[in-house]
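Board notes (copied after class):
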Amino acid sequence: MSANEDQEMELEALRSIYEGDESFRELSPVSFQYRIGESGDPKAFLIEVSWTETYPQTPPIISMNAFFNNTISSAIKESILAKLQEAVEANLGTAMTYTLFEYAKDNKEQFMENHHPVSSATSISNILSVETANVAPSSKKKEKKEQLTKAQKRKLADKTDHKGELPRGWNWVDVVKHVSIYSCSEV
């Protein structure tokens, strides 16, 4: 069988196996993603497998560069990819996408045993706090809020509902009046 025929058969098999599985995603007919673990699980990760033109005689491209994996350290990612590459070498020449996904599911705990979520939000906030500490004090002027008079506040309260929102259509134009004004002025 040619590589294309093998790929077509494997594609059909993957579609039938993972039909309705929320963890599986077909990005293209030769590229697939699978989420290992539940979506709220801090040890969950996403594997992307892309087939080359000569796959399965040549290894597929396995990636963990998805944004979903941004809390996983690069050392853990490299470790997972190395173990998946071993599985690729053992299955070279056969359809292995399903095997790789199942291997990752079966070994999830082992892969993630040393995982401590890397919080990118804290590193960003640390950077921001460092940058704001370096800003000169003269640039820390507080902008004054516009003060409304009692009459302005009352007028605003009369226009809004109890939630402080303007009613639907408050700025609509009466089309009939608008058209009649301009049509009378043209005559």
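Comment from the instructor: The first strand starts at residue 24 and ends at 28. Strands lie at 24-28, 31-36, 45-50, 61-63.
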